[in-house]
Amino acid sequence: MRNLKLTLSYDGAEFSGWQVQPGAATVQGTLASAIGRLTGEKVLPQGSGRTDAGVHALAQVVTFVTESPVPTENFLKALNDFLPPTVRVLEISEVAADFHARHAARAKTYRYRIFRGAICPPFLARYVWHFPYPLDEEAMARGGKLVEGEHDFTSFAAVDPDKRQEEASDLKAATNARRIFSSEWARDGEEFVYTVRGSGFLHHMVRNLVGTFILVGKGTLQVADVTRILEARDRSAAGATAPASGLYLVNVEY
User: Fold this and answer.
1) Mean pLDDT by groups of 10 residues along the chain of 254 residues
2) Domain segments of the chain: what residues?
3) Residue 170 confidence (pLDDT)
4) Do domains 2-95 and 107-253 have the same CATH topology?
5) Long-range CB pairs of 123-131, under 8 A, 24+ apart, other chains included
6) Cβ contact 60:249 at 8 Å
7) Known catalytic residue: 98?
8) Of 11, 52, 136, 188, which residue is the catalytic one?
9) Could you tell me which residues are beta bridge partners of residue 212?
C-alpha cells in the first residue's frame, strides 16, 4: 500500500464544493473518479478541508491510499489527462503511511478578492466579488487586525445543524476557538484583497469575516465593533456571508 499526497488546484465555480454529494458535481467526486479510472480502485481522496460550492483552490492538499505501482510522475500526467481542465494536479509525492491531509495540517491561508472598479470584466466575474460602492478601506484594514490572535469565532461560524467545521486542522477540536496568525487587507490594482492565515477555519468563517469587514467599510459598523462581535459569540451579531466567488484556499502548512 502507498500513501500518496497530491497538491491540487481548481476552479470551484462549477462545482458544488469539495465534498461528495449525491447527484452533484464535486471536486472530491471528480478526483475519485479519475483515480478509479487509472487504478481500478474505489478510493475517496481526503482533502485538507472542505471548500464550499463556488470556492476556488490554488493549492489544496489531498491524500489517498493505493495499491497501484504506477510511478508518481506517471500518476500525475495520467490524472491530469482524466480530469477536466478546471482541476489540475500540480504535484504528487509518496508520504508516510500515517500522514493525513486534514489531520496533519497546522495552518492554512485563504485569500478573498474584491473587485472595486465600476465595471467588472466578464472573464473575471466568477473569481471576485464585484463591489464598486464606496468603502473606507483603511478602516477595513484596521478591523482586520483585530481578529489576530486566539479567539472564539462563534460569531463568524455558519449556523449548521451538524455544526460542521469546514477547515478544522484538528478533528478533535470541540470548540470554535482558532488562532489567526495574520489578517490583512491590501490594494492590488482595482482589487482590494483580504489574506488570512490561521490554525484552522470554521465553516463560512472567512466569508463571514469579509461580510463583516464590508459593514465596517460602509460605516454601518465601527472598527471597534469587530471586537464586540467576537466577544458576543453570536452569529447574528456579524455581517452577512460574502459570496463564494472571491474566496481561494491558497496554502496548507504541515
Assistant:
1) 97 96 96 97 96 97 96 96 98 97 96 98 97 98 98 92 48 77 98 97 97 98 98 97 98 98
2) 2-95, 107-253
3) 46
4) yes
5) 125/245, 126/13, 126/54, 126/245, 127/11, 127/13, 127/56, 127/245, 127/246, 128/191, 128/245, 128/246, 129/210, 129/242, 129/243, 129/245, 129/246, 131/214
6) yes
7) no
8) 52
9) none
Nearest to 241 by CA among 183, 175, 172, 155: 155
Beta bridge pairs of residue 56: 248
pLDDT at 159: 84
The stretches of the chain forming alpha helices (DSSP H) are: 27-39, 72-82, 137-145, 205-218, 225-232
Which grid coordinates are listed for 105? 495540517
The class level of CATH for 2-95 reads alpha beta
pLDDT for 174 = 66
Grid coordinates representing 133 are 460602492
pTM over 0.85: yes
The topology (CATH level 3) of 107-253 is: Alpha-Beta Plaits (3.30.70)
All three cell numbers of 175, joined, read 470548540
Q: Which residues make Cβ contacts (< 8 Å) with residue 241, sequence separation at least 6?
A: 158, 204, 207, 208, 211
